[in-house]
């Protein structure tokens, strides 16, 4: 078995010309009538292919495949598919992240705006409370003044009545 620069493993196998299935135990040395194949070790288990070689076949384009649902394809086209799937997932994750970052920025701006409005509203409420206190004080003063005025009016009325009574006695 020789390793290529991309961690692909190279084996030499006899292929059934009708089915494409591998007919003999993979060899690590080149020999006549053996076909060179390249596979990637699965989860760094180099013996995986050697344990399961009889379940694999060679396609017309040279990819090593299997029809066994319990085994993974180890050919390059399967690996390309896995890479594309991961790339698509990464692209989607990046798009989701961008959307989330935009949403966070908008939420921060909305929160800042709401905080500003809350500060303005709080200041307005404080001013209204002060005005209400001043109004209550003014009403209390006005009520006090009204009471004083009524007392004065009563005193003036009594004084006028006394004067009028005195005037009536003097005219008689």
| Side-by-side strand order of the widest sheet | 1-2-3
Strand fraction:
5-15%
The poorly predicted ranges are 1-5
Using the CA coordinates, give the radius of gyration.
50 Å
Total E-strand runs? 5
Distance between the termini: 152 Å
Helix segment count? 2
Order of helices and strands: EEEHEEH
Given helix and strand content, the structural type is mainly alpha
Helical fraction: 55-70%
Subunit organisation of the chains: single chain
- How confident overall, as mean pLDDT? 83
Shape: rod-shaped
The description of the largest β-sheet is:
3 strands, antiparallel
Number of domains: 2
Give me some keywords for this one.
59% helix, 2 domains, disordered N terminus, 3-stranded antiparallel sheet, 172 residues, single chain, two-stranded antiparallel sheet, mainly alpha
């Amino acid at each position: 078995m020789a390793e290529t620069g991309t961690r692909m493993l190279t084996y030499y196998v006899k292929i059934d010309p009708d089915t494409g299935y591998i007919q003999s135990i993979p060899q690590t040395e080149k020999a006549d009538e053996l076909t060179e194949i390249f596979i990637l070790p699965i989860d760094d288990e180099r013996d995986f292919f050697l344990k399961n070689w009889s379940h694999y076949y060679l396609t017309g384009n040279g990819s090593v495949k299997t029809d066994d649902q319990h085994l993974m394809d180890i050919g390059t086209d399967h690996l390309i598919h896995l890479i594309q799937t991961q790339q698509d997932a990464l692209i989607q994750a990046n798009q989701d992240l961008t959307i989330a970052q935009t949403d966070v920025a908008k939420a921060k701006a909305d929160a800042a705006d709401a905080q500003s409005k809350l500060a303005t509203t709080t200041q307005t409420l404080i001013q209204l409370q002060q005005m209400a206190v001043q109004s209550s004080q003014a009403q209390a003063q006005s009520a006090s003044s009204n009471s004083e005025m009524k007392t004065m009016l009563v005193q003036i009325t009594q004084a006028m009545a006394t004067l009028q009574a005195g005037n009536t006695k003097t005219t008689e």
